[in-house]
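Progress against Task 2.4 (sequence-to-structure conversion) is shown through the following example record, which the project officer requested during the mid-term review.
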Amino acid sequence: MTDDPTPGEMVRRLEDRLTDVRDDIQQLERRLDGKVDQRIYDLRHEALASRVSTLETHREKDTEKLVATRRWLIGAVIVPLVGILLPVIILLSRGTS
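Structure tokens generated for the chain above:
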């Protein structure tokens, strides 16, 4: 007797292979469902790039406002304060000598 499979064994092997192929196709479908379409990815990337550029613009404007506030503080508060206190300090130091 040879080692040739019987017709029933051939049918079982084919059914096993068919089941394996179906499982593989289902796995591929699940993986493809998890993937993002390239157009959607590009749109999201463009939206994100737009948000980043907007945030950078706001940050630059905030930096400019901070510099302007510091200049105003120095010009409007510190310089007059030094202008008032310096003569007083000089007069007091001359008076004690």
